[in-house]
Amino acid sequence: MEEVKQIPQDIKEKYARPSWDEYFLGLLEPLGRRGSCDRGRAGALIVSPNHTIIATGYAGAPPGMPHCDEVGHMMNTVIHEDGTQSQHCVRTLHAEENAILQCAKDGVRIEGATMYCKMVPCYNCAMRILRVGIKRLVSQKRYHADGKSMELFQKTGIKVDVMENSVVQYKNQ
Description:
This protein is an alpha/beta fold. The protein has helices spanning 9-14, 20-26, 28-32, 68-71, 95-106, 123-132, 147-156, and strands at residues 43-47, 53-58, 75-79, 85-89, 114-119, 136-141, 159-162. The N and C termini lie far apart (64 Å).
């Protein structure tokens, strides 16, 4: 019988396993690289309460449609109530939308799940997150126009954890 070797205590203490949040947030950057819109290269994950990945998503055009990286952005200017303006590319689906839509396409229930994303979702994605019953959102950073999303999450009891209180910067914001 082969002897089982014990790991010395000093080696055990040097390595700290990432938390579940750190683990899933670490997967967002490679997911986002699949994106076909250079205005954020965002990725998203939907994870079950028992830490199983249910779906992934990234920012990009729907299947069969031209991608921003190939034909350019389809920009809309939004004028907000306070008079400020922001630019939004409407050629792409957001990473959060794509993850939710993948679940719908595959008939996968996501009620009670956690969503991990690069930045706090826009208001439209926030409404979809609320509608499908996601209960927790973990984002790496803030989104430049996330005020209404944060209000919605607070009013409806969706728990939000933002790891870094800074805004994701990208061109034509």
